[in-house]
Amino acid sequence: MHKMLKTLTWQNRWTRRWQQAHLPCGLLSCPSPKSPWSRLLTPRTGTLLQGVFYCQPKCQETALKAQVAQLYQLTPPAPPSNRIPLGLLMVARGWLTHEQVVTALAAQQSAQTGKIGDWFEKLGFASEQQVPSALGLQWGCPVVSSLDTTVNAPFGWLPLAIMDAFQMIPLHFVPATNTLYIAFGERVDHAALFTIDKVLNCRTRPCVRERKTVAYELEQMRQQPRTQEVEFGPMHDCAEIGRVSASYVSRLGADDTRLGRIGKYVWLRLKTGTSHTDLLFRLASEDPIRPNVLRTPRTPMLPVSSDVSLSAFQR
User: Fold this and answer.
1) What is the pTM of this model?
2) Which residue has the higher pLDDT, 92 or 6?
């Protein structure tokens, strides 16, 4: 039995070496042999970075630092504006009146806190189901009735810091289409979805759920240990991010590395066999991201009248 396992291990090792021998290194300045036969005889400890093969740790470290530098210099996109103001949409649906919207806006401005949808509920103008339904219409997304997160994707959960920043939770994964559905409790952020697509190598689709429910689920997650996540910050130097990242790739023996910029973070996912580790580098140049933060109008609240501008119905 021992001899058979030893034979299989030997065969797997040479099979992997044969496969890697036919993969050119993604680094143009790589000093390794160019001939496949020379590569076969030369030990290669290669890994993948963004789906591209790099034959040696030094090659991957060079490429990793270059990509981190590009992500570091990116300017995060501004939060997208609402397609249709929430208050206007609910008035058009007959769920609210013009006077109720203005009253809720006045209460929000006076308290200088809270979402306008929350004020609709606090004042008894709308039910808990109407606000998520309006958000779904606002962003063109389906509304989920429950957060049954028992179905876990093969690549595991998203980092808690990212989920908390965007108030979102992975909801369901469909293996047949490699699609991950993500429930948002506030603003749907398509830039974040694009980065998740790239890092997890899947398709993402947004949906909407009541904000309080999403916040409650995130609070429950904070009580659980998350040993596969490591957060650094604030980081002032992209070269330092590259060095730390390369060190973790080498230490963990990662087979595949993917990275992207999401909000105030540079996010790396290191895969080693069937397990993974998430590295989050919080950039010092960024303020703590909280999408859809209330911006108090600089002008006084307009009185209740029929000529209130449509901007007053903003969420």
Assistant:
1) 0.72
2) 92
